[in-house]
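[job 0417] fold request received: Enoyl-CoA hydratase
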Amino acid sequence: MDNLKFIQVETDENIGIIQLNRPEVLNALNRKMVNEIVRTIEDMDRDEKVKVIVLCGNGKAFAAGADINEMAQDSAIDLELLNQFADWDLLLQVKKPMIGAVHGFALGGGFELALACDLLFAAEDAKFGFPEINLAVMPGAGGTQRLTKLMGKTKALEWLWSGEMMTASEAEQHGIINKRLPKELVIEETINYAKKLAEKPALSVRFIKEAVYKAVDDSLLEGMQYERKNFSLLFSTEDQKEGMKAFMEKRKPQFKGR
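[job 0417] inference complete; emitting structure tokens
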């Protein structure tokens, strides 16, 4: 994606890295920035050379929330006509793994962007929260839904009603993040993990992701039927043949992602 103003994009081997880049406002998310993030993720999701997508923030924070100056005067009709959350809905369709590397603040829309990732690695100084209630509004880009699925109803209500920030330690305790790391290592270690994941067979990675989200959203029977269908489907891939052959020959498999 060309002419990016609010994010920086690079690749490290087969890892696509998106860095939020409004450090002067702690990477506060405006509408154009969200559009750049989502369109770039979509491009990476279609790029066969990219196996894993990593999101991180430049400066002192991951993202300190939405750009309040942009929306303070909006009416309900304005918001409905803008349909600004349509971009966020597209993140539900991403097939490749998305991993967030969070340091500093991940608040409001920034927390929602972090929760849209499949895995989260966080610095010891990371702070998460939904302060929207203190502005007499509420999360609008999936915050109430994703947080509840991770924490359960009662804990989600506690945090959403309080508007307070949770520490990285509390986020780890509640299953929101996968790992706490020193601030200076969080991006490096996230990329290292992404590189290890990128070595795995891409279709297995994709189908496992889809099956796990089925487990979150659907009934047990529906999830198990979906799992079995894709288990069988993987036996039609080149990587399955290579993986089992390599196992029997006691060598490292050479996966092609097909």
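[job 0417] notes: The chain has a mean pLDDT of 94. DSSP finds twelve helices and nine strands in the chain.
[job 0417] exit 0
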